[in-house]
Each structure stands twice: as structure tokens, then as C-alpha cells.
């Protein structure tokens, strides 16, 4: 099937590689690093395709305004900012680049775990403020601790391999991954109820769908070890924030590193209070924000769009992505 794509709107700071590649194949592009909802509604009728990261909400209203729109490309993995159902009903295709930023998301997850274990952020902040306090920032080793990985897709597996090298016991859950597959990346598959009491660290890598919304809630937290540490580089909605704030205040959760939030940028008072907790490290959705990942996601989405216009132009796309990730 050939799709007629003459003009692509690229937003959210997608890397220049995307436009360069499309232009090289005769497809015109308009790039707007930041776009308001109003501007998007004005601009979208002029384009056959839209390329976004996670910031732009591709709602039914946007899809309805896109009278020529044929494809929405997500230069990244999660498509929860796109109304996929409405797109389907309108015959607008949704494509993404799920593997292209996995390594970067994995590396940020591992970084946050280490930084959390050794109180790097508060210790550095204190020293910059003139306080030399070694005893206050005594950390704990990761070796010998149990890491629970929830969601064993591309990112979760990469995290397992790396944290195993740090000497952690890796346990995990994913309904779509077998125990034998888990063993290949040093992970023992367990049922969720068996995971909660064992985990010293929990890291979240499931997509945000109805069944995973509020995955970490009061009932789950009750079953966890006191002082459990939680890392979320997945999606904000995976954590029930009111329950989580309570658990942070009571010490049930001993530390958290959060890169994603229910609403971004966060304005909800509960989210803002979570961010301000002393035991919390927070970053502004930086999982995929590396030079390398942004080149890859932009390129992969552009290649997929070119393939829709000229089928077979990039026949080795998946092989290429796999090669890059395994390098
Ligand atoms: O879903 C993703 O791919 C990541 O959360 C990255 O999102 P971003 O492209 O907005 O950085």
C-alpha cells in the first residue's frame, strides 16, 4: 500500500535527522519545536503526517482538524499521548519507534538507582550550600539487594542485564514474557504477590494502559518492605500519587526517583508535594533525551514514513535498529 505523504509537521523537538531524511526523499517538512494546542489546530490541516514526542497531545480534536492527516508518527515508544482509537476510526495510522530509545531509558534508570542508593543529589546540594556532612549521606550497596523489574520489554531487559552486573538479585513480572525468556537476562519470573515482600528496589517499565494505571497503590505498598525504593522512568500514571505521597511521608517508601508524572509539566499539588519530598529525586522526563536516542528515533520514524511513500526503500530497518542497540 502506497500512502501519499507530501508534507509532514514535526513538533516536540524531534531531532533534525528526521526532517533531513524526509527532505532527502522529496517530502516537505515544517518543524516547530514547541507548539500550542491552538497553533497545532491551525497548522495540522496543511499536513499529511504529524511527528511528535510525548509533549503534544494528539486528541480527537487534533485528528478531526487534520483533514489531510494520514499518519501520526511517535518518535519514541509510548503512544499514550495519541488517541489511538479515534485515529483508527478515522483511518489515520499510528507508528512509533519502540526500540530506538530503549538504551537511553535503561541507562537513566540505572543511573537513578545508583544515585538514589548513594544520596548523590542531596549530598551534592548540601555541599554546594557549604555543608560538609559525610555521616548524613552514608548510602547502601546495590550488590546483594533485590531488584524487581515490572515490565520486561526492551527497557526492562536491558536494566536487568546491567543491574545483574552490579550483583543485584533480579526478579520481575511481565504477563507476556516466560520464565525461560526471563532466565536469559538473569531475571527470575515471579507472581506479583511474591514480588512485593522481596523487593528492595522496584523499577517500572510497563506501558500505561487501563490495566496498569495506578499499578503502585496503597494495597501494593502495604505488601512492600519498609523503606522500599521505587524508580519510575516509565509513565506517571503507573503510580497512584496520593497513596504514594502518604507512603513517602510514613517512610514505607524509603526513596524514589521519578522521571515521569501523571501530568507534564506537573502542576497538581500532590505531584508537586511528592517532588519536594527529601527522599525523592525528580527529573523532567529525560529517559529518551540523549543525542544518540534522538538521532535514532527521528531516523526510524522518517524511514517508516518514507517506506509508506516508497515501499521497500528501507527494507533492513528492524535489522539496523537491532544492530545499533546491540553494538
Ligand atoms: O515513550 C517514550 O519513548 C519515552 O517516554 C520518551 O518520551 P519523549 O520522546 O517525549 O522523550
From TrEMBL:
Keyword annotations of the record: Acetylation, NAD, Oxidoreductase, Phosphoprotein
What GO molecular functions are on record for this protein?
Answer: NAD binding; phosphoglycerate dehydrogenase activity
Gene3D superfamilies in alphabetical order: NAD(P)-binding Rossmann-like Domain (3.40.50.720)
Residue ranges annotated for the D-isomer specific 2-hydroxyacid dehydrogenase NAD-binding domain, each copy included: 111-287
The residues covered by the D-isomer specific 2-hydroxyacid dehydrogenase catalytic domain are 8-312
Q: Which Pfam families match?
A: 2-Hacid_dh (PF00389), 2-Hacid_dh_C (PF02826)
Q: Which InterPro entries match?
A: D-isomer_2_OHA_DH_cat_dom, D-isomer_DH_CS1, D-isomer_DH_NAD-bd, NAD(P)-bd_dom_sf
Record PANTHER family: D-3-PHOSPHOGLYCERATE DEHYDROGENASE, FORMATE DEHYDROGENASE 1
Q: How does the record describe its quaternary structure?
A: Homotetramer.
Q: What does the similarity note say? A: Belongs to the D-isomer specific 2-hydroxyacid dehydrogenase family.
Protein name from the UniProt record: D-3-phosphoglycerate dehydrogenase
Source organism = Bombyx mori (Silk moth)
